[in-house]
Amino acid sequence: PVILDFWATWCAYCKKLDKEVWNQPAVVRESLRYTAIKVDATKPDDDDMAAVKEMFGVPGLPTVAFIDSGGRILHGKTVSGYRNAEQMLELMRSVE
Question: Does the pTM of the predicted model rise above 0.85?
Fold first, then answer.
């Protein structure tokens, strides 16, 4: 599976995810089964990024989206806004 972390340099909650969630040992262990991609969505006027955000249903930042091991975008698992480590771990574990 793939996990996509949409972020921006100006996004305070994106930085909070980096500082408080992505580095937690249990989250790091679970992430090892994923291909992890950080998607820099800093430039709001980038047409290519707008198309990617539309494809993944990104309403704002931060947003974490998932693609399952069969290559399907899991729109029902996409989350926008801050989630703590426990919440993110539960979500990550629910993806096959």
Answer: yes
